[in-house]
Write a structure and sequence with these properties.
The chain has 271 residues and is mainly alpha-helical. It has 8 helices and 3 strands; from the N terminus they run H-H-H-E-H-E-E-H-H-H-H.
Length: 271
C-alpha cells in the first residue's frame, strides 16, 4: 500500500512538472486533493449517521402525545412571533432546503415525513427551527447573514465545475490552449466556493445556538421524557459534526482551487 501511494504521488508530480508546474506546488496540490477525497467520504458517512438517527427517532412517538406543530405554535406565540407560520414543505422546497426557516415568507418549513407529527424527530426539529426563527427575527447577525447566503451556499459549490469547463472550452476555441478564460473561470469558481464557505461556516454557531434553544424549550414545556430528550440531542449533535465535516471539505476545496489557479498561471507562463 505504501509503495502504491509513493508511486501515485511520484507519477502525479511528474505529470504536472512536465506541464510546467513547480515540484512543490504539484506535491501540495496532490496532498490537498487526497485530503478533499478523504474528508468528503467522512462527511458522507456523517450525513448517513444523521439520516439513521433522524428517521429512527421519527418512528418513536412521544409519551406526552403532543403534536409538533401545536407545541411549535405555542413557543412562537410565547416569543411574540404571531406572524410566523409553520407549514409542511412542498417536494421541491424540501429537496433543496430541507427543514428551514424562511425569513422572507416568515415561515418554518418542515419536511413532509416529519411534519405535524408527535414523533421525537418532528417535535425536536420543529422546536429547533422555531429557535432559528427567534434568532432571525431578533436580528441575530450570524443567523441573518446565513439566511441571505443560503442560496449561494447551496448552489455556489455546484457551479464551479460548469464554470471551469466553460473556461477550458473557450480557451480551446480561442487560443487552442489553456489561457485567460480558464484562469477567469477558476477565479469565479473560487468566489462561488467562498460564498458556500461563509454559509457553511455560519451553519455551525447558528445551529448550535438553535439546538440549545430547542432543548431549553423541551425542558420548559416538558414535552419529552429524559430518554426522549437524549435521543433528539444525539440527532442535534450528529448534525453539528456533519456541518463541521462540510466546513473542512469546503476549506480544502478553496485551497485546492487556489492551487489550481497558481498551477494554471505557471503552465500559461511556461507556454
Amino acid at each position: 500500500m505504501t509503495e502504491f501511494i509513493k508511486t501515485f504521488f511520484t507519477k502525479g508530480v511528474t505529470v504536472f512538472t512536465d506541464l510546467g508546474v513547480s515540484e512543490w506546488l504539484a506535491w501540495t496540490y496532490l496532498v490537498i486533493s487526497i485530503l478533499v477525497i478523504i474528508m468528503a467520504v467522512v462527511a458522507l458517512v456523517m450525513w448517513i449517521f444523521v439520516a439513521i438517527r433522524y428517521y429512527g427517532s421519527n418512528r418513536k412517538t412521544l409519551k406526552s402525545g403532543q403534536n409538533s406543530f401545536q407545541i411549535g405554535r405555542q413557543m412562537l406565540d410565547k416569543a411574540g412571533l404571531y406572524d410566523v407560520q409553520i407549514k409542511k414543505a412542498g417536494f421541491l422546497r424540501a429537496w433543496v432546503y430541507g427543514n428551514y426557516y424562511d425569513m422572507k415568507k416568515k415561515t418554518v418549513f418542515i419536511r413532509k415525513r416529519i411534519a405535524d407529527k408527535n414523533s421525537i424527530t418532528s417535535v425536536g426539529l420543529v422546536l429547533q427551527k422555531v429557535g432559528v426563527a427567534k434568532l432571525c427575527e431578533s436580528g441575530d447577525t450570524k443567523s441573518v447573514v446565513r439566511y441571505k447566503m443560503k442560496k449561494l451556499g447551496i448552489f455556489g459549490p455546484l457551479l464551479f465545475i460548469p464554470f471551469i469547463l466553460i473556461g477550458a472550452i473557450l480557451d480551446i476555441i480561442v487560443f487552442q490552449k489553456t489561457g485567460a478564460f480558464s484562469t477567469v473561470s477558476l477565479v469565479i469558481s473560487l468566489v462561488l466556493l467562498a460564498a458556500g464557505f461563509i454559509e457553511t461556516m455560519l451553519n455551525i454557531p447558528v445551529e448550535k445556538k438553535a439546538n440549545k434553544m430547542a432543548l431549553e424549550m423541551i425542558d420548559e414545556t416538558g414535552v419529552m421524557t429524559e430518554d426522549e430528550r437524549k435521543q433528539i440531542k444525539k440527532v442535534f449533535d450528529t448534525y453539528i459534526v456533519a456541518y463541521v465535516c462540510d466546513f473542512i471539505v469546503t476549506v480544502l476545496r478553496i485551497i485546492q482551487l487556489i492551487l489550481e489557479i497558481a498551477m494554471n498561471s505557471q503552465i500559461s507562463s511556461n507556454k
